[in-house]
Amino acid sequence: MMALCIARTHRNLGYALISIFAIFSQAWAQAPVGLTVSSHDVTVLVNKTESFDVLVRDPFTQDFRITLIKQHDNMVDLDPMEFSIMAGSTQNQTILINGLKPGHLEVTAESQPNEKWVVEDIYLRITVANSEAIIYTSLIFGWIYFVAWSVSFYPQIWTNFKRKSVVGLNFDFVFLNIVGFTLYSIFNCGLYWVPGIQDEYFERYPRGLNPVMLNDVVFSLHAMFATCITIYQCFAYERAEQRVSKIASGLVGLFAAFVIISAGLAAGNVIHWLDFLYYCSYVKLTITIIKYVPQALMNYRRKSTVGWSIGNILLDFTGGTLSMLQMILNAYNYDDWVSIFGDPTKFGLGLFSVLFDIFFMLQHYVFYSISHSSVAVNCRCSNFDIVFRKGVCKCDLDRNAPNESVNVDMPDRESRRIYKGFYYYKLFK
């Protein structure tokens, strides 16, 4: 008898679950579907015309009057500004956009009768540009500086490998770099791959675009990887008495404490994870400002740039200059100077980096170049001719006496090799 009651109970519970599922399925199937647009982003040139379509995804049961609303009145003309969607109609509505003045604006809509679900997906981000040629030039600049910045890590790696030494490369710079690029990678990966953080972003900025693109993720992860190679070289190759300074260690300790506390607050739901990522980006920006100082001071104290690759600086200068030029071109093309002068952080950081690059180039080519260097380079080859040119001490050796004493006073580890009867000492730049 007990078994029979249990069986009936299970059967009734099954019927109840099926009924609930059927009710929710029917409600979901009958949920109204509003209008949408063919594209949420449109670019139009001044005095040119583009178009988009308002799409009817499901026929309405009543007539609706739709009115488009422009964020700024003087940038574009929309034709028509008002239109009707009749009950039962599946006819889409084409809207023409005529560019009047460069800039950015949003277009939304409202309906009569006032039903929010009808027009909630009608929104456009319209960009009005002065010149199509500038758009493509800006795109080309973007790809060039992406490549330049990506490749800029390898001249230093090659210099270290060639010299089998990292003497002259400041360890504080490397230490700060790996911390900065790790935090930058956390920011990019979080916003690009974590759905929960993306939901937080779009809840805060409902009609915004995700600021992180795939190339940002690739660049930051690649930068972290390349810096790890340099760190390995710092352990594997000759480094003399160089080590990370107490000041750099203290700064990184403060940054680490700030990041750990922020992560704890995010885990405890005191702040959002999106805010945690922003805090990581602020630390990265701070590191970008200060990371060049230790290397510049080291070059000054040594009166030499030997061991510090100028190729890294030239590529970084190329990338930074093109990045700023791209911002200036975009500001002109879209009449968006406020993006530079109203929020100068990005442009200011780019300018700061370029100024440091110029300073490094002056150190390398003018202040401490080998041809003008005050560093004593003394080549002594007994009974043989001596040539010192472009950092090379060349002594004409007796092939029968390859062990002839040759002394070269260099500020750093030198490369020695015998080639075609000559004993070379090369001070690598």
From TrEMBL:
GO CC annotation: lysosomal membrane
Residues spanning the signal sequence: 1-29
A Pfam family that the UniProt record links to this protein: PQ-loop
Membrane topology field: Multi-pass membrane protein
Membrane-spanning parts: 133-154, 174-194, 214-235, 247-270, 276-294, 306-329, 349-368
Catalytic activity annotation: L-cystine(out) + H(+)(out) = L-cystine(in) + H(+)(in)
Highest taxon of source: Eukaryota
One GO MF term: symporter activity
Compartments in which it is found: Lysosome membrane
Keyword Membrane carried by entry: yes
Main location: membrane
Family matches, as InterPro entries: LC_transporter, PQ-loop_rpt
UniProt entry keywords in alphabetical sequence: Lysosome, Membrane, Repeat, Signal, Symport, Transmembrane, Transmembrane helix, Transport
NCBIfam families on file: 2A43
Family note: Belongs to the cystinosin family.
Protein's name according to its UniProt entry: Cystinosin homolog
